[in-house]
Write a structure and sequence with these properties.
Oligomer: single chain
Number of helices: 14
Shape: globular
Pfam family, one: Methyltransf_21
Distance between the termini: 53 Å
CATH architecture of the largest domain: 3-Layer(aba) Sandwich
Radius of gyration: 23 Å
CATH topology of the largest domain: Rossmann fold
Protein name: FkbM family methyltransferase
Number of strands: 17
CATH superfamily of the largest domain: Vaccinia Virus protein VP39
Helix content: 40-55%
Keywords: Methyltransferase, Transferase
Largest sheet: 7 strands, mixed
Domain Methyltransferase FkbM: 193-355
GO molecular function: methyltransferase activity
Strand content: 15-25%
Number of domains: 2
Structural class: alpha/beta
Length: 392
């Protein structure tokens, strides 16, 4: 999901600087400084006040109005919540545990309306956001498309939480790869982009392998944008499929939410049906990862999954691939409370010897884009080498 947001302040150009400031705040600043007789001192104070507001605004989440369903709080208040929490944070690093607890605490305080700090990023998010801003400043914005580091994205649609910043999702994956996969080589293995949407992550992942990125997008209109992105970039190693990924081969209906006459293609879901009366319903075809991998006879090194609440069905249909090939995986877990707490234990039950990190992908968004990064441990390789040595 990339939208369901309200941007509450207007962008105003003032004396060559872009400040995010509404009229009420501007008037208040003028009331504070108007009496200062010397123009230079008056302007200096005005600019200092603007800087203070700008700093606060920079650290503010984009999603001013959050979309936490109330059943999140009911889940947190349930009798077995602490058991679920303990299982989730077991064996996680301190940074992942902080991400989990901060997210849960924000839900509690949001529903109980007790903390104004909910609007602002924490210190880690602020630091990650600096990386995102630096990358955003490197994007060239042409009339029809944006360009960054050899990649192009169309300007026909907005692909990001920030209007006009279509590369934000790519920047978030750059940050993840820099932090956790810098020394990992997957260039000789195939990649699955499950929930490819408009193709932004597909063109980034295509730079990480000499093999093929198989991109799956079930909604026809979104799939057509994916095709356009591939064509715009002249990618030869991305193969798109107009398919959904689930736990069986067959057909289903997918619900595409509408808002005041517009449609949100990024939030189309089979199980998160929103308001069915206002949704567009589309018939789609489904397959499983295990069936696809067997049919194509491929080796998979990395899987990205963002399929709006169908992630557990993905796991059911990918179990053999996960156990036998142990690919690196980035799985969205924020779509519902069961995904958040249960996906990690499900993968642990496969006994495939994975380690885990819980990562906030987009630092300036409060409610969304939390993923489970799954990495295969080296224990199996070490055990295999030990067994070979003992047989010599």
């Amino acid at each position: 999901m990339k939208f369901c947001l309200l941007f509450n302040n207007s962008i105003m150009l003032k004396k060559g600087r872009i400040n995010i400031m509404n009229k009420e705040v501007e008037d208040l600043i003028n009331e504070i400084v108007w009496w200062i007789p010397l123009k230079n001192k008056r302007n200096n104070l005005r600019n200092k006040l603007i800087d203070i507001i700008d700093d606060k605004t920079k650290n503010k989440y984009s999603d001013e109005i959050l979309c936490y369903p109330f059943n999140w709080l009911k889940y947190i208040d349930s009798d077995n919540f602490l058991v679920k929490l303990k299982n989730l944070i077991k064996d996680l690093d301190d940074e992942s545990i902080q991400t989990v607890l901060y997210f849960i605490n924000r839900i509690i305080k949001y529903h109980r309306k007790s903390d104004n700090h909910l609007k602002y990023m924490n210190s880690k998010e602020i630091n990650d956001n600096k990386f995102m801003i630096e990358k955003e400043d490197m994007v060239l914005d042409f009339e029809d498309y944006q360009y960054y580091n050899g990649m192009k994205l169309t300007n026909k649609i907005n692909m990001s939480y920030k209007v006009g910043q279509n590369f934000s999702n790519i920047h978030s994956y750059e940050l993840l790869f820099n932090k956790y996969m810098k020394d990992i080589d997957i260039t000789d293995k195939n990649i699955l982009d499950i929930g490819a949407c408009y193709g932004d992550t597909s063109i980034f992942l295509a730079t990480k392998t000499k093999q093929i990125v198989y991109s799956f997008e079930p909604v026809k209109k979104t799939y057509n944008f994916l095709l356009e992105t591939i064509e715009l970039n002249e990618n030869k190693n991305i193969i798109p499929f107009n398919l959904g990924i689930s736990n069986h081969i067959g057909n289903s209906q997918i619900y595409i939410p509408t808002y005041e006459g517009g449609i949100d293609l990024t939030s189309a879901s089979i199980s998160n049906t929103f308001n069915k009366e206002n949704a567009i319903i589309e018939n789609i075809s489904l397959t499983t990862v295990d069936d696809f991998v067997k049919e194509k006879n491929i080796e998979v090194g990395f899987i990205k999954v963002d399929i709006e609440g169908e992630e557990q069905k993905f796991l059911e249909g990918a179990k053999n691939t996960i156990i036998k090939q142990r690919p690196y995986m980035v799985i969205s877990i924020y779509h519902n409370e069961s995904d958040f707490f249960d996906i990690k234990p499900i993968i642990e039950s496969y006994n495939a010897d994975y380690g885990f990190k819980i990562v906030k992908m987009i630092p300036y968004v409060g409610a969304y884009e939390i993923v489970l990064f799954c990495y295969p441990n080296n224990n199996r390789a070490e055990q295999s080498r030990a067994e070979q040595s003992s047989n010599v």
